[in-house]
Design brief:
This protein is an all-alpha fold and about 70 residues long. The protein has a domain of about 25 residues. It has two helices and no strands. The radius of gyration is 32 Å and the shape is rod-shaped. The termini are far apart. About 0% of the residues are buried.
């Protein structure tokens, strides 16, 4: 019985290490995504509404000629 318990303990240790690695990878991915989202939101907020308007200016319109 002692060998079965030792084998089970080794298996549990391996499982624990595997779960820890996957958890660490998941946390790293979430942190990277959060930083990327924050960066993209900051970039979109920095754009002012005036900068989004067309940059070409239209010529002023002349008043309509009075009918004759």
């Amino acid at each position: 019985m002692a060998t079965h318990r030792q084998a089970q303990a080794r298996s549990d240790d391996r499982d624990d290490k595997r779960v820890f690695r996957w958890g660490a990878i998941a946390v790293a991915v979430l942190v990277v995504l959060a930083v990327l989202a924050s960066y993209l939101l900051t970039q979109s907020r920095e754009r002012s509404p005036a900068a989004q308007e067309p940059t070409t200016q239209q010529a002023p319109q002349k008043p309509a000629a009075p009918p004759q």
